[in-house]
Amino acid sequence: MQDMIGDKKLSEGKQGNTPPKLDLTPEQVAAMRRAASLAAPDIEALPSCHPATVLRAENEAMNAQIATLLHDVALPETPADFVPRFLALNAVRTHFMKKEELIMPMLYQYGVTGPSDVMWRDDDAMKKELGTISRSLQEDAENVVLYRGRIQALLQQLTAMTRKEDAILFPLALRYFTEEEWYAIYDDAIDMGTAFLATQPAPWEAAEAWRKAQADAADKRTFENGKIQLPTGELTVRELRAILKLAGIDITFIDAADHLRFFENEGKVFARPKLALGRPVYDCHPTQIVPVVKHLLADFKAKRRDHMTVWRRIAKRPIGVRYHAVYDDDGTYLGAVEFVQDFTEALAHFGK
Prior knowledge:
Blueprint: H1 2-15, H2 26-37, H3 51-73, H4 82-87, H5 92-109, H6 114-139, H7 148-176, H8 179-192, H9 205-220, E1 223-224, E2 227-230, E3 233-235, H10 237-247, E4 250-255, E5 260-265, H11 290-302, E6 307-314, E7 317-327, E8 333-342, H12 344-350
Antiparallel strand pairs: 1-2, 2-3, 4-5, 4-8, 6-7, 7-8
Helix pairs in contact: 1-6, 3-7, 5-6, 5-8, 6-7, 8-9
């Protein structure tokens, strides 16, 4: 989907379409006015764990690698370890992902589209070229000679992009984004990881306090305005049911007291009668299986293990059955979930 979105942005840019009308909040309007009247904050004075600082550090580390690669690719014979060091540049995808998913969209919300449009186009072109060269060098390391000119050009383009980010994109973001928006960027960036850095940045204490406050507030919200409140969004019950039906997986949840509380049986590998809801899970299994179920749930509760996977052929179909312990954020045992999936289609696809 991201590729499709990226392609759409590129095509719109080429056609010269004007950006859609923005629906800005009063806070964003105030931030825009503030940004227009103030110089960008001193980027050098930011904490080492600030997202802008981390992105700049990634650029610096990548440029150090690029300088060595540019030197080595120009030699009559490239070093034996040139290919793995070049392939390591694919980590730039993580860097670009954070820039494209966290920085650029927020600038769009403030009506600042020009730099992002150009960078997005150039990023896509560099990622495509990096992928093409990487695949060729993986097939045959001797292809370095054939791709020497393209490698040099790509390395120079990557270096030029780091200069544009440091000089244009990051200062722009610092002018517009509120402190809380940087906290939100920090929060999302944690899951995306870092690129080229030998050590991970230390936690940003102010942002960590904000994350905890957000999590505490989310824990208190369960159902508001007819929607289920989740840490990553909200859904109506109707929407959630429709989504679960599309998964094509049998899902069964057993609570902490070992009672069957929920199932979704779209895969229809095993029968799941509604009359079983609320019953002890042991009453839903043949007598000879009950000791196995009791032992598994006891292990889950004691945290001796947190999952078990069984692969079986059922009615000649390849079936995967996965059992997972379900724990709250504080480690409290909430129950167990069983996922049952038919892998016939997947195996047929990969067998082509």
